[in-house]
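Retro notes, structure queue

What went well: the backlog is down to a handful. What didn't: a couple of records were mislabeled last round, so from now on we paste the full input next to the output in the thread. Example, using C4-dicarboxylate ABC transporter from Stygiolobus caldivivus:
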Amino acid sequence: MRIGSEWFPLVIGTFALSLISWMNSVLFNNVILFEIGKTIYFIALFVFLAVLGLWIKGYVVDKEAITQDLNNLTRVAFSAFIGVILFIMGFFFIVYIGVNTRIAYALLILYFVGYAEVLTVNIFTGYKLFTQPLRQEDLNYSVLVPSIALSANVILSAPLLPPSLPYISPFYTKVVYFIMLVSVGITFFQFMFLGSVALLSHLIFKGYPSVVMIPVGASSVLAINILTFPSYNYLDFLYFPEKVSITLGIILFGFELWNLTVGLIIAISRRNLKPNLAVWAYVFPLAISSFSDFLLYEETTIGFFKYLELLLSIVIILFYVYSMRITFLTIKDGEKENRR
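Corresponding output:
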Protein backbone atom coordinates (compact mmCIF):
# COMPACT_ATOMS: atom_id res chain seq x y z
CA MET A 1 0.00 0.00 0.00
CA ARG A 2 1.46 3.34 -1.11
CA ILE A 3 1.13 6.34 1.20
CA GLY A 4 -0.31 9.34 -0.65
CA SER A 5 -0.93 12.95 0.33
CA GLU A 6 -4.35 11.95 1.69
CA TRP A 7 -2.45 10.72 4.78
CA PHE A 8 -1.28 14.21 5.80
CA PRO A 9 -4.65 15.10 7.39
CA LEU A 10 -3.86 12.34 9.92
CA VAL A 11 -0.82 14.38 10.96
CA ILE A 12 -2.84 17.59 11.23
CA GLY A 13 -5.49 15.70 13.20
CA THR A 14 -2.84 14.70 15.74
CA PHE A 15 -1.63 18.30 15.96
CA ALA A 16 -5.29 19.26 16.51
CA LEU A 17 -5.27 17.30 19.77
CA SER A 18 -2.28 19.35 20.89
CA LEU A 19 -4.09 22.53 19.86
CA ILE A 20 -7.23 21.86 21.88
CA SER A 21 -5.12 20.83 24.88
CA TRP A 22 -3.22 24.12 24.70
CA MET A 23 -6.32 26.26 24.16
CA ASN A 24 -8.15 24.68 27.09
CA SER A 25 -5.05 25.03 29.26
CA VAL A 26 -5.22 28.77 28.57
CA LEU A 27 -8.99 29.08 29.00
CA PHE A 28 -9.14 27.08 32.21
CA ASN A 29 -5.63 27.84 33.51
CA ASN A 30 -4.69 24.15 33.64
CA VAL A 31 -0.99 23.22 33.60
CA ILE A 32 -1.74 19.50 33.12
CA LEU A 33 -3.52 20.19 29.84
CA PHE A 34 -0.52 22.27 28.72
CA GLU A 35 1.86 19.37 29.40
CA ILE A 36 -0.48 16.93 27.63
CA GLY A 37 -0.54 19.22 24.60
CA LYS A 38 3.25 19.45 24.64
CA THR A 39 3.58 15.66 24.70
CA ILE A 40 1.12 15.29 21.83
CA TYR A 41 3.12 17.86 19.88
CA PHE A 42 6.21 15.65 19.91
CA ILE A 43 4.12 12.60 19.01
CA ALA A 44 2.67 14.55 16.07
CA LEU A 45 6.18 15.48 14.91
CA PHE A 46 7.09 11.78 14.85
CA VAL A 47 3.90 10.93 12.95
CA PHE A 48 4.67 13.68 10.41
CA LEU A 49 8.22 12.44 9.80
CA ALA A 50 6.94 8.87 9.42
CA VAL A 51 4.20 9.82 6.94
CA LEU A 52 6.52 12.18 5.02
CA GLY A 53 9.19 9.46 4.78
CA LEU A 54 6.72 6.86 3.52
CA TRP A 55 5.23 9.38 1.08
CA ILE A 56 8.65 10.12 -0.41
CA LYS A 57 9.55 6.42 -0.41
CA GLY A 58 6.48 5.72 -2.54
CA TYR A 59 7.84 7.99 -5.28
CA VAL A 60 11.35 6.55 -5.03
CA VAL A 61 10.07 2.99 -5.42
CA ASP A 62 7.54 3.82 -8.14
CA LYS A 63 8.60 6.68 -10.41
CA GLU A 64 5.33 6.49 -12.35
CA ALA A 65 3.47 7.40 -9.17
CA ILE A 66 4.74 10.97 -9.53
CA THR A 67 2.99 11.43 -12.88
CA GLN A 68 -0.13 9.68 -11.60
CA ASP A 69 -0.41 11.94 -8.57
CA LEU A 70 0.28 15.09 -10.57
CA ASN A 71 -2.78 14.20 -12.62
CA ASN A 72 -4.87 13.46 -9.53
CA LEU A 73 -6.37 16.78 -8.47
CA THR A 74 -7.27 15.61 -4.97
CA ARG A 75 -3.75 14.38 -4.22
CA VAL A 76 -2.27 17.58 -5.64
CA ALA A 77 -4.56 19.66 -3.43
CA PHE A 78 -3.84 17.60 -0.32
CA SER A 79 -0.10 18.09 -0.74
CA ALA A 80 -0.69 21.68 0.43
CA PHE A 81 -1.06 20.21 3.91
CA ILE A 82 2.75 19.95 4.05
CA GLY A 83 3.05 23.72 4.24
CA VAL A 84 0.25 23.90 6.81
CA ILE A 85 2.10 21.37 8.94
CA LEU A 86 5.23 23.54 8.79
CA PHE A 87 3.18 26.51 10.03
CA ILE A 88 1.74 24.40 12.84
CA MET A 89 5.15 23.05 13.83
CA GLY A 90 6.50 26.58 14.12
CA PHE A 91 3.50 27.75 16.13
CA PHE A 92 3.83 24.97 18.69
CA PHE A 93 7.59 25.47 18.92
CA ILE A 94 6.86 29.02 20.07
CA VAL A 95 4.13 27.90 22.46
CA TYR A 96 5.83 24.91 24.07
CA ILE A 97 9.57 25.58 23.76
CA GLY A 98 10.08 29.31 23.35
CA VAL A 99 12.34 31.35 21.09
CA ASN A 100 15.14 33.89 21.01
CA THR A 101 16.20 36.16 18.15
CA ARG A 102 18.12 33.47 16.26
CA ILE A 103 15.32 30.91 16.53
CA ALA A 104 12.73 33.54 15.59
CA TYR A 105 14.49 34.18 12.29
CA ALA A 106 14.87 30.42 11.74
CA LEU A 107 11.11 30.16 12.16
CA LEU A 108 10.70 33.05 9.72
CA ILE A 109 12.63 31.00 7.15
CA LEU A 110 10.34 28.05 7.96
CA TYR A 111 7.40 30.38 7.37
CA PHE A 112 8.65 31.41 3.93
CA VAL A 113 9.39 27.79 2.99
CA GLY A 114 5.90 26.72 4.07
CA TYR A 115 4.30 29.62 2.24
CA ALA A 116 6.26 28.92 -0.94
CA GLU A 117 5.03 25.31 -0.80
CA VAL A 118 1.34 26.14 -0.35
CA LEU A 119 1.48 28.94 -2.94
CA THR A 120 3.07 26.58 -5.48
CA VAL A 121 0.42 23.93 -4.83
CA ASN A 122 -2.32 26.57 -5.00
CA ILE A 123 -1.14 27.87 -8.37
CA PHE A 124 -0.61 24.36 -9.76
CA THR A 125 -4.08 23.30 -8.60
CA GLY A 126 -5.55 26.30 -10.40
CA TYR A 127 -3.58 25.43 -13.52
CA LYS A 128 -4.84 21.83 -13.48
CA LEU A 129 -8.42 22.97 -12.90
CA PHE A 130 -8.38 25.21 -15.95
CA THR A 131 -6.37 23.02 -18.33
CA GLN A 132 -6.91 19.30 -17.75
CA PRO A 133 -10.08 17.30 -18.47
CA LEU A 134 -11.84 16.98 -15.12
CA ARG A 135 -13.54 13.92 -13.72
CA GLN A 136 -16.58 14.14 -11.47
CA GLU A 137 -14.54 13.03 -8.44
CA ASP A 138 -12.10 15.92 -9.02
CA LEU A 139 -14.78 18.54 -8.37
CA ASN A 140 -15.20 18.30 -4.63
CA TYR A 141 -14.39 20.47 -1.66
CA SER A 142 -10.84 19.14 -1.54
CA VAL A 143 -9.94 21.74 -4.19
CA LEU A 144 -10.37 24.32 -1.43
CA VAL A 145 -7.52 22.84 0.62
CA PRO A 146 -4.79 24.89 -1.14
CA SER A 147 -6.91 28.02 -0.60
CA ILE A 148 -7.26 27.34 3.12
CA ALA A 149 -3.57 26.42 3.33
CA LEU A 150 -2.60 29.77 1.82
CA SER A 151 -4.30 31.79 4.56
CA ALA A 152 -3.25 29.27 7.22
CA ASN A 153 0.10 31.08 7.21
CA VAL A 154 -1.43 33.18 10.00
CA ILE A 155 -0.96 30.19 12.31
CA LEU A 156 2.78 30.93 12.38
CA SER A 157 2.96 34.58 11.34
CA ALA A 158 0.67 35.96 14.07
CA PRO A 159 2.55 34.49 17.07
CA LEU A 160 5.94 35.13 15.46
CA LEU A 161 5.62 38.79 14.51
CA PRO A 162 5.59 41.79 16.83
CA PRO A 163 3.72 42.61 19.01
CA SER A 164 3.48 38.91 19.98
CA LEU A 165 7.29 38.57 19.97
CA PRO A 166 9.82 41.41 19.72
CA TYR A 167 12.45 39.74 17.51
CA ILE A 168 11.42 40.22 13.87
CA SER A 169 12.39 43.55 12.28
CA PRO A 170 9.74 46.05 11.04
CA PHE A 171 10.77 45.37 7.43
CA TYR A 172 10.05 41.64 7.58
CA THR A 173 6.95 42.27 9.68
CA LYS A 174 5.56 44.48 6.91
CA VAL A 175 6.46 41.87 4.28
CA VAL A 176 4.69 39.10 6.16
CA TYR A 177 1.69 41.29 6.98
CA PHE A 178 1.37 42.14 3.28
CA ILE A 179 1.50 38.41 2.47
CA MET A 180 -1.25 37.75 5.01
CA LEU A 181 -3.49 40.40 3.44
CA VAL A 182 -2.89 39.17 -0.11
CA SER A 183 -3.51 35.56 0.96
CA VAL A 184 -6.88 36.43 2.51
CA GLY A 185 -7.92 38.04 -0.76
CA ILE A 186 -6.95 34.95 -2.75
CA THR A 187 -8.61 32.60 -0.27
CA PHE A 188 -11.84 34.61 -0.16
CA PHE A 189 -12.42 34.66 -3.91
CA GLN A 190 -11.28 31.08 -4.44
CA PHE A 191 -13.66 30.10 -1.64
CA MET A 192 -16.50 31.91 -3.43
CA PHE A 193 -15.86 30.59 -6.94
CA LEU A 194 -14.26 27.16 -6.43
CA GLY A 195 -16.51 26.52 -3.45
CA SER A 196 -19.58 27.18 -5.59
CA VAL A 197 -18.40 24.70 -8.22
CA ALA A 198 -17.58 22.10 -5.56
CA LEU A 199 -20.96 22.62 -3.90
CA LEU A 200 -22.82 22.13 -7.17
CA SER A 201 -20.82 18.97 -7.90
CA HIS A 202 -21.51 17.63 -4.42
CA LEU A 203 -25.24 18.35 -4.67
CA ILE A 204 -25.47 16.53 -8.01
CA PHE A 205 -23.15 13.56 -7.43
CA LYS A 206 -23.36 13.25 -3.60
CA GLY A 207 -19.69 12.88 -2.71
CA TYR A 208 -18.32 11.65 0.60
CA PRO A 209 -20.13 13.57 3.39
CA SER A 210 -17.07 14.55 5.43
CA VAL A 211 -15.81 16.96 2.75
CA VAL A 212 -18.83 19.15 3.51
CA MET A 213 -16.86 20.28 6.57
CA ILE A 214 -14.02 21.82 4.53
CA PRO A 215 -15.85 25.17 4.01
CA VAL A 216 -15.93 25.44 7.83
CA GLY A 217 -12.14 25.56 7.68
CA ALA A 218 -12.24 28.21 4.95
CA SER A 219 -14.55 30.60 6.81
CA SER A 220 -12.71 30.02 10.10
CA VAL A 221 -9.25 30.68 8.68
CA LEU A 222 -10.53 33.93 7.16
CA ALA A 223 -11.91 34.92 10.56
CA ILE A 224 -8.60 34.11 12.28
CA ASN A 225 -6.72 36.35 9.84
CA ILE A 226 -9.17 39.23 10.17
CA LEU A 227 -9.05 39.06 13.97
CA THR A 228 -5.25 39.41 13.91
CA PHE A 229 -5.05 42.32 11.44
CA PRO A 230 -5.57 45.14 13.98
CA SER A 231 -2.45 43.93 15.83
CA TYR A 232 -0.33 45.46 13.06
CA ASN A 233 -1.87 48.94 13.04
CA TYR A 234 1.17 50.11 15.02
CA LEU A 235 3.26 49.70 11.86
CA ASP A 236 1.53 52.74 10.32
CA PHE A 237 1.56 50.71 7.13
CA LEU A 238 -2.05 49.69 6.60
CA TYR A 239 -4.96 50.17 8.97
CA PHE A 240 -7.67 47.75 10.08
CA PRO A 241 -10.07 48.93 12.82
CA GLU A 242 -10.33 46.55 15.77
CA LYS A 243 -14.12 46.70 16.08
CA VAL A 244 -14.50 46.05 12.36
CA SER A 245 -12.33 42.93 12.66
CA ILE A 246 -14.44 41.60 15.54
CA THR A 247 -17.66 42.37 13.63
CA LEU A 248 -16.43 40.56 10.52
CA GLY A 249 -15.16 37.69 12.67
CA ILE A 250 -18.62 37.19 14.15
CA ILE A 251 -20.24 37.47 10.70
CA LEU A 252 -17.96 34.69 9.42
CA PHE A 253 -18.68 32.75 12.61
CA GLY A 254 -22.36 32.71 11.59
CA PHE A 255 -21.60 30.80 8.39
CA GLU A 256 -19.12 28.61 10.24
CA LEU A 257 -21.75 27.62 12.82
CA TRP A 258 -24.37 26.91 10.16
CA ASN A 259 -22.02 24.78 8.04
CA LEU A 260 -20.73 23.05 11.16
CA THR A 261 -24.24 22.12 12.26
CA VAL A 262 -25.23 20.83 8.82
CA GLY A 263 -21.97 18.87 8.52
CA LEU A 264 -22.39 17.16 11.88
CA ILE A 265 -26.01 16.25 11.12
CA ILE A 266 -24.89 14.73 7.82
CA ALA A 267 -22.10 12.86 9.64
CA ILE A 268 -24.63 11.28 12.00
CA SER A 269 -27.20 10.50 9.30
CA ARG A 270 -24.58 8.95 6.96
CA ARG A 271 -22.68 7.02 9.65
CA ASN A 272 -23.46 3.68 7.98
CA LEU A 273 -21.61 4.57 4.76
CA LYS A 274 -18.41 2.64 4.02
CA PRO A 275 -15.69 4.75 5.71
CA ASN A 276 -12.28 5.70 4.29
CA LEU A 277 -9.48 8.17 5.01
CA ALA A 278 -11.77 11.04 4.02
CA VAL A 279 -13.09 10.92 7.60
CA TRP A 280 -10.07 13.06 8.57
CA ALA A 281 -11.84 15.90 6.73
CA TYR A 282 -13.94 16.26 9.89
CA VAL A 283 -10.98 16.85 12.22
CA PHE A 284 -8.97 19.53 10.38
CA PRO A 285 -11.84 22.04 9.82
CA LEU A 286 -13.14 21.48 13.36
CA ALA A 287 -9.69 22.34 14.74
CA ILE A 288 -9.56 25.60 12.76
CA SER A 289 -13.11 26.39 13.86
CA SER A 290 -12.28 25.82 17.53
CA PHE A 291 -9.23 28.09 17.23
CA SER A 292 -11.39 30.80 15.64
CA ASP A 293 -13.84 30.51 18.55
CA PHE A 294 -10.93 30.69 20.98
CA LEU A 295 -9.78 33.98 19.42
CA LEU A 296 -13.31 35.37 19.42
CA TYR A 297 -13.54 34.65 23.13
CA GLU A 298 -10.16 36.29 23.71
CA GLU A 299 -11.34 39.40 21.84
CA THR A 300 -14.90 39.64 23.19
CA THR A 301 -14.90 37.64 26.48
CA ILE A 302 -18.35 36.34 25.46
CA GLY A 303 -18.74 33.09 27.37
CA PHE A 304 -20.61 31.40 24.51
CA PHE A 305 -17.41 31.18 22.46
CA LYS A 306 -15.48 29.71 25.39
CA TYR A 307 -17.91 26.85 25.92
CA LEU A 308 -18.41 26.29 22.21
CA GLU A 309 -14.64 25.82 21.95
CA LEU A 310 -14.84 23.30 24.79
CA LEU A 311 -17.69 21.45 23.06
CA LEU A 312 -15.77 21.36 19.77
CA SER A 313 -12.74 20.01 21.65
CA ILE A 314 -14.82 17.04 22.78
CA VAL A 315 -16.18 16.53 19.26
CA ILE A 316 -12.64 16.66 17.83
CA ILE A 317 -11.48 13.96 20.24
CA LEU A 318 -14.42 11.73 19.29
CA PHE A 319 -13.79 12.20 15.56
CA TYR A 320 -10.07 11.62 16.09
CA VAL A 321 -10.68 8.29 17.81
CA TYR A 322 -13.12 7.26 15.07
CA SER A 323 -10.76 8.39 12.30
CA MET A 324 -7.83 6.49 13.85
CA ARG A 325 -9.96 3.36 13.94
CA ILE A 326 -10.74 3.76 10.23
CA THR A 327 -7.05 4.42 9.52
CA PHE A 328 -5.98 1.18 11.22
CA LEU A 329 -8.64 -0.73 9.27
CA THR A 330 -7.35 0.87 6.05
CA ILE A 331 -3.79 -0.22 6.88
CA LYS A 332 -5.02 -3.72 7.66
CA ASP A 333 -6.90 -3.93 4.34
CA GLY A 334 -3.82 -2.64 2.52
CA GLU A 335 -1.67 -5.37 4.06
CA LYS A 336 -4.16 -8.00 2.93
CA GLU A 337 -4.00 -6.70 -0.65
CA ASN A 338 -0.18 -6.75 -0.58
CA ARG A 339 -0.22 -10.41 0.46
CA ARG A 340 -2.33 -11.27 -2.56
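Agreed that this is the format going forward. Reviewer comment attached to the example: Residues 5-339 form a domain with the Glycosyltransferase fold (CATH 1.50.10.150).
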